[in-house]
Amino acid sequence: MRHLQRWVSRTALEEGWSRQPRSRPAPTGCRVAVVGAGAAGVAAAVTLAAHGHEVVLLDREAEPGGVARGTIPPERLPDEILRRELEDALLASGGIERRRFELSTSNSLDSLLAEDFDAVLLAMGLTRSVALEAAVRPEGVYGALEFLRCVKHGGQRVQGAVAVLGGGNTAIDAALSALRAGAADVYVVYRRSFTEMPAWPEERDAAVRAGVHFLVLTQPLDYVSDGDGRLTGLRVVRTRLAEPDASGRRRPVPIAGTEHVLPCEVAVEAIGQSVDETVRQALAGVKFTEKGTIWTRPGTLMTSRERVWAAGDIVNGGATVVEAVAEGMRAAREIHAALAPAQAATGPGGRSGG
């Protein structure tokens, strides 16, 4: 599937499919703000513009791409393909205003709604890595997103052994990036078995071929550091699998007497992503789930606040780029349907029926 997607993307760029100007219907008179210029946000903005809505695309970065552009290694998602696909789609849509904007206490959801937007779509990525609940956090421990950005854009090099905590695609990306950045050995430490590992089998197998070591049925517990506060090891315990838990996967149970220390100079936490606390504070009235993602009303992508929808990683917890695009388009269709009564009241091309 990944290779098919890449072939379609390359062909689309070479043939100029995404640059083909799109015909637009008469303006509806409705304004929509889309926060986040990643895959979900761009897909939603293009879809809304195709329905005739005035769209303002807001992002803290000048270039579109979001978390995917910042963290996914180019070997898995080529930068040029992503950039040109998004830029071409936005240009072909025509009329989409783009603005630098970062959610904060001064640039909040309330301030956006006060700008006379008829609807707001929250399509930001998850920008904070979930940390291991450890007693200490020594120098040499990184969140996965931070580590991937440093390697991809900052040219960071690493030495010695690297332990990657987690078993998803982000963990595999971090492991392979660590190898490319000069690590002598890389260990993926995962508390369940290969069967339960959420990473795509093809990506996992590529990591095995590249020389990544997989320590499955091994649960991270804490970090070990030297007198200067530098990481020297990861304390782990062996596990066995019991009955399935709420996730549907078999629950790992620690095996008494198997605790030991895995020596390492770098640890990368790839056990999940969450919403930054500053973003949460800027979204007053928006309900969050226990997992830290935005809650949406059953069967829809509308949030707990009226006129506010959400899509992409901030709702699903982090999925594929293809799924983010599909969710952004779905949210756009829901917004268009919700704005239909307002369009009928004002008439096409104006904001009031006079």
Describe the protein's topology.
Layout lengths: L1 H14 L15 E5 L3 H12 L3 E6 L6 H6 L7 H15 L3 E4 L8 H5 L5 E4 L5 E2 L11 E3 H11 L6 E5 L3 H12 L4 E5 L11 H10 L2 E3 L2 E8 L5 E14 L5 E5 L5 E4 L2 E4 L3 E2 L2 H6 L25 E3 L2 H4 L4 H26 L8
Parallel strand pairs: 1-2, 1-4, 2-3, 4-16, 6-14, 7-8, 7-14, 8-9
Antiparallel strand pairs: 5-15, 10-11, 11-12, 11-13
Describe the structure.
- This protein has eleven helices and 16 strands.
- By secondary structure, the chain is α/β, with parallel strands linked by helices.
- The protein folds into two domains: 2-127 and 275-346, FAD/NAD(P)-binding domain, CATH 3.50.50.60; 130-272, FAD/NAD(P)-binding domain.
- A five-stranded parallel beta sheet has the order 3-2-1-4-16.
- Helix 2 packs parallel to helix 11.
- The protein starts with a helix and ends in an 8-residue tail after the last helix.
Q: Indicate the low-confidence ranges by residue numbers.
A: 1-18
Helical residues, percent: 25-40%
Count structural domains.
Answer: 2
CATH fold-level assignment of the largest domain? FAD/NAD(P)-binding domain
Strand order in the sheet with the most strands: 3-2-1-4-16
**How many angstroms separate the termini?**
52 Å
Q: Which CATH architecture of the largest domain?
A: 3-Layer(bba) Sandwich
Can you tell me the overall shape? elongated
Q: How many DSSP E strands?
A: 16
Task: Calculate the mean pLDDT score and round it.
Answer: 87
Element-level helix/strand string = HEHEHHEHEEEHEHEHEEEEEEEHEHH
What's the CATH first level of the largest domain? Answer: Alpha Beta
Instruction: Report the major sheet.
Output: 5 strands, parallel
User: What's the quaternary structure here?
Assistant: single chain
Query: Number of DSSP helices?
Result: 11
Structural class computed from helices and strand pairing: alpha/beta
Radius of gyration: 22 Å
* Percentage of residues in strands: 15-25%
Query: In the CATH hierarchy, what is the superfamily of the largest domain?
Result: FAD/NAD(P)-binding domain
